[in-house]
Amino acid sequence: MTRELSPASDWCQRWSPGRRHSWRHRHEGGFDRDRYGVTPLPEADAKTFVTGLHYSGTYPAAVHRYGLWDVKTSPRLVGVAVLSVPTNRRTLTNAFPHLDAYSQSLELGRFVLTDDVPGNGETFFLAEAFRLAAEQGVRGLVSFADPLPRTTIDGHTVFTGHRGAIYQAANADYAGRSTAGTRVLLPDGTTLSNRALAKVTKGECGHEYVERLLISHGAAPRLPDQSGADWLRQARAEAHVRTLHHPGNHRYLFRLGTKAQRRRVTIAMPAQPYPKDRTCRQAAGQVAA
Predict the structure, then answer these.
(1) What is the assigned CATH class of domain 10-176+249-260+267-275?
(2) Cα dihedral 278→281→287→288 (10° resolution)
(3) Which Pfam families match (predicted)?
(4) Which of 16, 198, 216, 251 is deepest in the core (most CB within 10 A)?
(5) What is the pLDDT of residue 31?
(6) What tens digit of pLDDT does each residue of 238-285 get?
């Protein structure tokens, strides 16, 4: 049975090579803002950093990318924030109906720091990334915190889940949960999106990559006369794909810009109290074979 985790809000998640997570306590201190800088980042550098550290191993459709640099000696990249285009336009327009989606409003699709950044590094990084994004005309951001753990098929935890402590510390509006649904997990704990699966069944561009991915996890190659739908049913079983019943992610909303600019941003979703329950509680379902 998969249980939704609620790490105490004083703990902040960090990442190491190989997509291993760790935690930093906000009260441990040690963050020296004079040692760090934030700059726009090239696409290739951001993608390499995120896919190497983030538990999902994936990279979103980026619009703006920002790097956190440790400049104590020679500059070293220790964090990446990616503002991206979500799969569904309504993710943005439902929250910010008066902003131009994909330009004035975006999703904070990835926010990753290495495990050697001291506590409270997130607060500095978010503030600087938001300042730079506002200079590019961004006025609204949506970000999601995933509260459910991910494990490999043999039970090794690759992601513990979180409730968005850093977004609460940044005074984001909390707008409840995203829609509940299912997640498809590969044996290594990474997620295979429903959109990716649909590419196989419909024969759309990109289906070859999805097929190669499932084959790498044990599925037999697709036969020349085999339909995508038939092959996918067989491949899911052979690749030991699991289904995770998910109650929905926590949704946070940010207004960006000067005080006057932020006041002009309309949020259409009512603000709700931050999720603060520190106990584990059962999620909507369980991981099924």
Answers:
(1) alpha beta
(2) 180
(3) Mom (PF25680)
(4) 251
(5) 81
(6) 999 999 888 889 999 999 999 999 999 999 999 999 987 543 333 333
Structure tokens at 156: 């090794």
Specify the DSSP element, H or E, that contains 259.
Answer: helix 259-263
**Residue recorded with tokens 């915190």:** 145
Q: What are 24's strand-pairing partners?
A: 12
Kindly list the domain boundaries of the chain, sorted by start residue. Answer: 10-176+249-260+267-275, 185-242
Contact predicate 76/54, CB 8 Å:
no
Q: What's the token pair of residue 96?
A: 């910010």
Helix (H) or strand (E) holding 198: helix 194-202
Distance between CA atoms of 34 and 52, rounded to whole angstroms? 27
Give the pLDDT of residue 152. 87
Higher-pLDDT residue of 237 and 281 is: 237
pLDDT of residue 253: 98
Question: Tens digit of pLDDT for each residue in 121-146?
Answer: 888 999 999 999 999 999 999 999 98
d(CA 167, CA 36): 20
**How many CA atoms within 13 Å lie on the side-chain side of 175?**
21
Closest CA to 2 of 183, 188, 148: 148
* Residue 223, token pair as written in the block: 């036969």
Residue 259 vs residues 134, 186, 262, 263, 270: alpha-carbon distances, Å? 12, 45, 5, 6, 20
Token couple for 278: 């520190």
